[in-house]
Amino acid sequence: MGDRNQHLFVEANRDRFVGPFLEIGSKNYGSTQDLRAIMGGPDDYVGLDMADGDGVDIVLDLTRPFEEINAALGGKRFGTIFCLSVLEHCAQPFAMADTLTRLLTDGGVLCVSVPWAWQFHGYPSDYWRFSHEGVKLLFPALTFDATRGKAALRDGEFEPLDENIGRLPLRTSPHRAAGRGGRAVAAGLMKALGRLPGFDWLLGHPYVMAPTMISMIGRKDAGAAGE
Q: Cis link prior to 65 (omega < 30° from 0)?
């Protein structure tokens, strides 16, 4: 699955991704990003989904007992696993995360992207929203590169994953310095509105621009938990 910002995130981090490749939720619904093509269409690329269709090589539920999953995949392990816009649809995200960890090779990487603030969208349903710290809890055996993780705000606009996620400074100078004139105007208007009766909450609530998605890359170190 995935959207354009996830496409950009994968492209920007191509140097971290090596085969064999496993894409979770690979069915093409018409607007799905073609990650296989970004990777150059390698022969060692497996597209996996719970429903058959274009882009799907294996139909499999990754929350089933691991012995079944391992047999279906022929014992194969992967150097890169893509899991973009999938975990929010999984009723058992901890079971899914454990399976993905076990399917990585030692030194393999997980490229994961999850929604922070997004409309309800069922495939077939929609259960969860995540923070970057929540992703780390799902994958305790992985080490996530803080310099690679990004929060997506708008199309093509990213912020670092730090303590300022979702915080919109109501001062115009930081936005102008960053070349974001539109956001500077918005900050000025919100600050002016915040001085009016009934709108004081705008000045007292710093988290007024929650990111839509967060994208992260985690590495499985040799000897980490999982097979």
A: no
Instruction: State the residue for tokens 């208007």.
Output: 189
Rounded CA gap, 109 and 81, in Å? 6
Q: How does pLDDT run across 8-63, given as a tens digit for each residue? A: 999 999 999 999 999 999 998 877 788 999 999 999 999 999 999 999 999 999 99
Cα separation, 115 vs 56, in Å, equals 23
Whole-angstrom distance, CA of residue 44 vs CA of residue 38: 14
pTM: 0.83
Q: How many residues are listed for the chain in this entry?
A: 227
> For residues 105-141, b (16+ Cβ closer than 10 Å) or e, as one string?
beebbbbbbbbbebeeeebeeeeeebbbeebeebbeb
- Residue 41, token pair as written in the block: 């269409």
Scanning the chain, the segments in alpha helix (DSSP H) are 4-12, 35-38, 66-72, 93-103, 132-138, 172-177, 181-194, 201-204
